[in-house]
Amino acid sequence: MKKFSALVFSALAALLIAQAAQALTIGTFNIEYFHIAGTGGSTMSHPAYTRDDVLAVAKTILKSGADVLALQEIQGEETMRFLTLTGLPGWKYYGKDIAYKKLGWDISRENQNHYFLWNPEKVTLLDTPYLHYLKDKFDHAGRRSLIFDRAPMEARFRDNATGREFTLVCVHLKSFNTAGKSDVEAAQRYNIAKRAAQTEKLNELSKKLKGPAFILGDYNSPDPTREVTFPLLTLERGTTFDNWNSNIDYIGYVGVDRDKLGTPKETEARIERRSTKRKDHPDHDVLTLDVTLD
After folding, report:
1. Does 15 fall in a domain?
2. Which residue range(s) make up the domain with 220?
3. What global pTM score does this model have?
């Protein structure tokens, strides 16, 4: 009987190990105006990341265990090239400014680009990432404005371990913040209207995605569950945005059962040299999620 129990235990342990080995880890990380010197993004309030800072970012990403990440607030290809060559050799990336170049537009000096970053040993990019709703506009206060200044970027990947395909959509929604605006009430109305237009489009997009699919990134709200029609996950305890003591980073999912998804985890991203007692920089932590694709 003891021998039989030991065999059963060994079989269960082997099964659990096999399942863990097949788990894919996805995540989102807003690196906060991530740029290096010479890329045109340096400001007094957000100084360029030094080599040591970039190595700290790479260390945080590796510590998170993420196989593929949706990134926000990236200067562009020059900074991402430096990140991968310096701290993540072999990793690959694709970003909004790269996509814009193919359209004949140069936004390489912006600090608000989306990027996908992945370990090619774990996942394979299948198609060129696609930007949604680039030119779509909404009406507000007698004028038409772009719905997305930071267009959602979709990419299709394959999990190398299982051969299963999945979709990621990187998002960075409009903030409710009105700091620095002379007419706070008008700015607030504009922000609300813009977010409503953005979440309407995300809800529309979620119905078109082939599952399993994940809409993840900086939702810029501590409770976007009232705005979107697809389920969202974030930390059950703790915060991903310590400066507001809240969670504004989320991983939405479509076409996959909840029992195939683990518990969202946080990896602290604070860089001591860039931070103060009151504020962390980068101001977001890494949010990751284990996904079982079978």
Report:
1. no
2. 22-292
3. 0.91
User: Would residue 178 count as lying in a domain?
Assistant: yes
How many helices and strands (H and E) does the chain possess? 5, 15
As a 3-state breakdown, the chain gives helix, strand, coil percent values, each rounded to 5, of 30, 30, 45
CATH number at residue 99: 3.60.10.10
Specify if 7 maps to a domain.
Answer: no
Instruction: State the total domains in the chain.
Output: 1
The arithmetic mean of pLDDT across residues 17-33, rounded, is: 79
- Please write the tens of the pLDDT for every residue from 216-255: 999 999 999 999 999 999 999 999 998 889 999 999 999 9
Q: Give the C-alpha separation, 224 to 253, whole Å.
A: 14
Q: Is 10 part of a structural domain of the chain?
A: no
Q: What are the tens digits of pLDDT across the range 99-127?
A: 888 888 877 677 889 999 999 999 999 99
Sign, CA dihedral 92-96-101-102, equals positive
